[in-house]
């Protein structure tokens, strides 16, 4: 078995334990394999082990990788998610090459993605990134901005608002991790109570996926636990 296949099995076991502990089912949680900084071959190895959803942060690297994977496996149903910061002059290739974008934090970016989404691809799935760490993070809409942003994004014709994404401040304190994820969940529940139809909570990474699942994550974004240590971690 490849190292990546073994790592995927270990992550799968963590997810299975976490869903059991919170009386959820395995189908409630999708594993997004975050392949940033790793080559196309690493993605192909993960695909050989059955993984089909991949997250990328850096646009040019992602576009090259998507092309290489498509060439090697033209018939595979691979699903690419963009999870990095978005520059407004880079929305067109994002709209054309990804199935999901998790990091929308401004209306202007959402409007551009909607205008530039090729209609034949169907709606682009969107999560709004929310900043629950206050001043400690520059990324994400504030909890105050979120309801207005969500209502506007939900109206855009070529997008489908699916839910919220968050990256809490790193901490190894499990209670603090759970508290942060619970805040995201509360924002999500409030928007749904307000009538927005959303089904996705994108939260939890290699270091905190179990507490994220305990608080309702439906997509966990896992990089280093699958592909190994990166230079940036
Ligand atoms: C890199 C990254 C991940 C994966 O992080 P790991 O700690 O390697 O699992 C998840 N989400 C986002 C937004 C990232 O940038």
From TrEMBL:
UniProt KW Iron-sulfur keyword: no
UniProt similarity note: Belongs to the pyridoxal phosphate-binding protein YggS/PROSC family.
Keyword Transcription part of the UniProt annotation: no
Example GO molecular function: pyridoxal phosphate binding
Protein name: Pyridoxal phosphate homeostasis protein
Function of the molecule: Pyridoxal 5'-phosphate (PLP)-binding protein, which is involved in PLP homeostasis.
One Pfam family here: Ala_racemase_N
Species of the source: Massilia aurea
């Amino acid at each position: 078995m490849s190292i990546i296949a073994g790592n995927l099995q270990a992550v799968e076991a963590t997810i299975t334990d976490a869903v059991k502990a919170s009386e959820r089912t395995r189908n409630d949680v999708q594993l997004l394999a975050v392949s940033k900084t790793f080559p196309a071959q690493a993605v192909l190895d993960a695909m050989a082990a059955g993984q089909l959803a991949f997250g990328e942060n850096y646009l040019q690297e992602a576009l090259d990788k998507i092309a290489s994977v498509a060439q090697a496996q033209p018939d595979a149903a691979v699903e690419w998610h963009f999870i990095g910061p978005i520059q407004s002059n880079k929305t067109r290739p994002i709209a054309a090459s990804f199935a999901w974008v998790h990091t929308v934090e401004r209306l202007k970016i959402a409007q551009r993605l909607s205008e530039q989404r090729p209609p034949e691809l169907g709606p682009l799935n969107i999560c709004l990134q929310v900043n629950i760490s206050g001043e400690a993070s520059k990324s994400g809409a504030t909890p105050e901005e979120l309801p207005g942003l969500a209502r506007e994004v939900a109206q855009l014709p070529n997008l489908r608002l699916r839910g919220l994404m968050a990256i809490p401040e790193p901490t190894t304190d499990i209670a603090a991790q759970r508290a942060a994820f619970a805040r995201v969940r509360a924002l999500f529940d409030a928007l749904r109570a307000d009538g927005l139809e959303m089904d996705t909570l994108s939260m939890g990474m290699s270091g905190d996926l179990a507490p994220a699942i305990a608080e309702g994550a439906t997509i966990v974004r896992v990089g280093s636990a699958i592909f190994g240590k990166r230079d940036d971690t």
